[in-house]
Write a structure and sequence with these properties.
Low-confidence stretches of chain B: none
Strand content of chain A: under 5%
Helix content of chain B: over 70%
Largest sheet of chain A: none
Order of helices and strands of chain A: HHHHH
Shape of chain B: globular
Number of strands of chain B: 2
Radius of gyration of chain B: 23 Å
Number of strands of chain A: 0
Number of helices of chain A: 5
Mean pLDDT of chain B: 84
Distance between the termini of chain A: 62 Å
Number of domains of chain B: 1
Largest sheet of chain B: 2 strands, antiparallel
Oligomer: heterodimer
Chain lengths: 166, 504
C-alpha cells in the first residue's frame, strides 16, 4: 500500500517537474522572440521590449524554482489520490467545439449550432441513447438554436456569424 | 451634493420598470448559476455581458450586479438540501446547513441562510458607501508609481493566496500577463508577438479569456467527471424567517464579526467569498461558548458562513470603484463590463460619473432585497431548474459563450481565442494551477506595464524613484515582505512535512 502511494506521489512530483520544464522552454522561446520587437524613438528610456523580457525572466525563474523544488522533495510528502476522469469524453468535447467553430464560419450560426448541440447532447448523455432521447435532443437543438438566433439578432440587435458556403 | 441627495438621485435613476425587471432577471439567473454546481457567478456574468452591449451602463449594470449578488447567495440551496455547495462560497454552509436538513429543518436552514445573506450584503454595502468616496479622494493623489505599486501588490496577493502553491499561483498570474503583451504595446504602439497575423494587432480580449478559463473549462470539467452524483433533495417546507427575535439578538455579535471578516476579505484582492465563509466559520467556532455543537446543525455556523460570503460583495467593489483594481474574478467581469461601456473605474469615476456610481449603489441595495424575496419564495422553481440534465444544459452554455465572444467584435477569431484559453486553463488546472490569477494577471498586466513605463519615463529610467514616493515605496516594501514571508512559510511547511514523513 505504501509502495503504491509512493508510486502515485512520485507521479505527481513528475507532473510538476514536467509542467515546470514545459514553461521553462516556452519562456526561453518567448524571451528570444522578445528581441525581435522593433524599438521606437517615442520611449527610448524603457522601450517595448523591457516588460516582456522581465515577464519572460520571471516565468523562467519560477519554472526553474518549481522543477528544483519538486526534484528536491522526498517521496514522504503528501499523497493525493488521482480523481477518476474520462479523457476520451474530454477530447471529444474539445474536438467537437473546435469543429463547431470551424463550421460556424462556413455554415453560419443557426445550422452549425443545431448540429453541435445535437451531437454534444448525444455525446455527453447516457450511451447508448434511447430513441425517445434522440428525438428530445433533436427538438431541443433546433429550438435552442432558433431562440438564441432570434433573441440575439432581433431583440438585442447583435451580429451572428453568417454562412460562407451558401 | 450630499450623500442623501446622491442616493435620492441614484434611486430616481433606477426606479424604472425596465431596470427593475433587468435586475430581477439578473438575480434569478444569479441564484440559478450559484445553485448549480460547476456554474459560477463569473460564468454567469461572462455569458450575459454581450446582452448588455446595446444597453446604457445603468441598464447593463442592473442585470450584471443582479447576477453577482444572486450567485453568491444561491450556493446555499444545494449546500443545504443536497450537501453539494453550488459555489465555493457556500462550502462552510454545508457543515451545519446539511445536518439541519437531515433532521427535517432544511426549510428553516434556507430561510436563515437567506436572511443572513441579505444582512451580510447590506452591512458590507454600508462599508462600501462609507469607505469608497474617502478612498477615491485619497486615490486622486496617486501617480504612475502608486498605481504600479498597487498593481504589483494586488497581483502578489492574488498569486500567493488563491492557490495551495505560491510558485503555481505566480506562474498562473504570469501566464495571464504574458498574453497581454501580444498586440500593440502601450505608449509607443509597437507591434509585439503578432507573427504577421492581422487579428493579433489588437491583442487578446478579456471576455474570450474569461469565457475560456471559466465557462468552457467548467463544461470540459463536467464532461471529465465520469460519474455524476445523483441529487437527493431533502424536505424544505417552512414558514417565517427561521429565527426568533431572541435568537436574532443572540446571533447579533456573530453576524457583525462575520460581516466584518467578509467585507475585509472582499477588499483584499485574491481571497474572495470562497475563503471568507471558511474563515468566518472557524472564527465563529473559536468565539463560541459551545464549539462542540458546530458541525451538528447549529445555526451559528450557518449564520457565520452566509453572512461572510455575501459581505464580500460590498468589500470587493471598493478597490474596483476607487482604483480600478478588481478583487476577484466576479469583479474582474464587472470591470470588463465598465470598459465595454466606455467607463474606466478609478478615483475620477466619482467625479466624472457620480450619477452612475450612486445608481450602482442603489442597484446593489435593490438586488440584495430581490435576492432575499426571490430565494425565499422561488425555491421550488430553482430546484426544478437544477434537475435539467447537464448534457442538455452545458452545450447550450457553450453556444451562448461563443455568441457572446463573437458579438463583441464580430470576429470568429475571438471564438478561437476562447478555445485557446480553455485549452490553456484546462491544461494548467490539470497540474493544479489556480485559474483566478490568470484572469487577474490579464487585467492587471496592462495597468502594471503602462504605469511602470510612464513612471520610468518621468524618472529618466531610475527605478529607485518608485521607492522615494511615500505610498508607492511603502506598498512596494510591503509586497517584498509578503513575498519573503510566503517563501519562508512555504519552506517551513515543506520541512515539517518531510520530518513528519520520516518519523512515520
Amino acid at each position: 500500500m505504501i509502495q503504491a502511494d509512493r508510486g502515485m506521489n512520485l507521479n505527481r512530483q513528475h507532473k510538476d517537474a514536467i509542467i515546470g520544464g514545459i514553461l521553462a522552454v516556452l519562456s526561453c522561446i518567448y524571451l528570444v522572440m522578445s528581441f525581435r520587437i522593433k524599438l521606437t524613438n517615442i520611449d527610448p528610456v524603457v522601450g517595448s521590449r523591457m516588460f516582456p523580457q522581465i515577464c519572460g525572466t520571471v516565468v523562467l525563474a519560477l519554472s526553474t524554482w518549481l522543477i528544483v523544488s519538486t526534484l528536491r522533495k522526498k517521496q514522504t510528502e503528501e499523497v493525493i489520490p488521482e480523481k477518476q476522469t474520462s479523457y476520451i469524453k474530454t477530447i471529444i468535447v474539445l474536438g467537437s467545439y473546435a469543429a463547431y467553430i470551424f463550421l460556424m464560419d462556413k455554415l453560419g450560426f443557426a445550422c452549425s449550432s443545431m448540429i453541435y448541440l445535437f451531437s454534444q447532447m448525444l455525446v455527453m448523455g447516457k450511451w447508448p441513447a434511447k430513441k425517445k432521447d434522440i428525438i428530445v435532443y433533436a427538438v431541443i437543438a433546433v429550438t435552442a438554436s432558433a431562440v438564441i438566433y432570434v433573441l440575439f439578432r432581433q431583440v438585442f440587435m447583435l451580429m451572428l456569424p453568417k454562412a460562407r458556403w451558401f | 451634493m450630499g450623500v442623501l441627495e446622491m442616493f435620492a438621485a441614484g434611486f430616481s435613476q433606477i426606479m424604472e420598470p425596465q431596470i427593475l425587471l433587468l435586475c430581477l432577471a439578473g438575480v434569478i439567473l444569479g441564484i440559478f448559476f450559484g445553485a448549480s454546481p460547476g456554474m459560477t457567478s463569473s460564468m454567469g456574468i461572462a455569458l450575459i455581458l454581450p446582452v448588455t452591449y446595446g444597453m446604457d451602463i445603468v441598464h447593463g449594470m442592473s442585470i450584471l450586479l443582479g447576477i453577482y449578488i444572486g450567485s453568491i447567495s444561491g450556493g446555499l440551496i444545494t449546500a443545504i438540501l443536497i450537501n453539494i455547495p453550488g459555489t465555493p462560497a457556500s462550502v462552510a454552509s454545508t457543515f451545519d446547513g446539511h445536518p439541519m436538513a437531515e433532521r427535517g429543518e432544511g426549510g428553516r436552514a434556507i430561510r436563515i441562510g437567506t436572511l443572513y445573506s441579505l444582512l451580510g450584503g447590506m452591512i458590507s454595502l454600508i462599508a462600501l458607501f462609507a469607505i469608497s468616496p474617502i478612498l477615491a479622494k485619497w486615490a486622486l493623489k496617486f501617480s504612475y508609481e502608486e498605481y504600479f505599486a498597487i498593481g504589483v501588490l494586488s497581483l502578489t496577493l492574488i498569486a500567493s493566496l488563491s492557490g495551495k502553491s505560491l510558485v503555481k499561483g505566480m506562474l498562473s498570474a504570469m501566464v495571464g500577463i504574458i498574453f497581454t503583451t501580444v498586440g500593440m504595446a502601450p505608449v509607443d504602439t509597437a507591434r509585439r508577438f503578432t507573427f504577421g497575423i492581422h487579428e493579433l494587432d489588437g491583442g487578446f480580449k478579456l471576455l474570450p479569456l474569461m469565457i475560456g478559463v471559466y465557462a468552457v473549462m467548467e463544461v470540459i470539467k463536467a464532461a471529465d467527471a465520469s460519474n455524476q452524483e445523483k441529487m437527493e433533495v431533502k424536505s424544505y417546507k417552512s414558514k417565517g424567517l427561521g429565527v426568533s427575535w431572541r435568537e436574532f439578538c443572540d446571533q447579533f455579535k456573530n453576524m457583525l464579526v462575520s460581516a466584518g471578516i467578509g467585507t475585509g476579505i472582499g477588499i483584499l484582492p485574491g481571497l474572495g467569498a470562497a475563503v471568507s465563509n471558511l474563515i468566518a466559520y472557524s472564527v465563529s467556532k473559536n468565539m463560541s461558548k459551545h464549539p462542540e455543537k458546530y458541525g451538528t446543525g447549529c445555526i451559528d455556523g450557518l449564520i457565520a458562513s452566509e453572512t461572510a460570503n455575501n459581505a464580500v460583495s460590498g468589500g470587493a467593489m471598493i478597490p474596483l470603484l476607487t482604483m480600478g483594481i478588481p478583487g476577484d474574478a466576479g469583479t474582474a467581469m464587472l470591470l470588463a463590463a465598465f470598459m465595454l461601456h466606455g467607463i474606466t473605474p478609478g478615483p475620477l469615476l466619482f467625479q466624472s460619473h457620480g450619477n452612475v456610481i450612486y445608481a450602482m449603489f442603489s442597484i446593489l441595495i435593490v438586488a440584495n432585497i430581490m435576492m432575499f424575496v426571490v430565494q425565499l419564495y422561488g425555491l421550488p422553481g430553482f430546484l426544478k431548474l437544477l434537475m435539467i440534465p447537464r448534457n442538455i444544459l452545458l452545450p447550450i452554455v457553450m453556444v451562448l459563450a461563443s455568441v457572446g465572444a463573437f458579438a463583441m467584435n464580430n470576429r470568429i477569431f475571438d471564438i478561437w481565442s476562447i478555445f485557446l484559453f480553455a485549452l490553456i486553463g484546462y491544461g494548467l488546472s490539470k497540474f493544479d494551477f489556480p485559474p483566478a490569477p490568470i484572469v487577474l494577471g490579464f487585467v492587471l498586466g496592462p495597468i502594471i506595464e503602462l504605469n511602470f513605463r510612464r513612471g520610468m519615463m518621468s524618472s529618466y529610467g531610475n527605478f529607485a524613484a518608485f521607492f522615494k514616493r511615500p505610498i508607492a515605496g511603502t506598498v512596494l516594501v510591503l509586497t517584498i515582505l509578503l513575498l519573503v514571508y510566503q517563501v519562508i512559510s512555504g519552506v517551513r511547511k515543506s520541512r515539517q512535512k518531510t520530518v513528519q514523513g520520516e518519523i512515520q
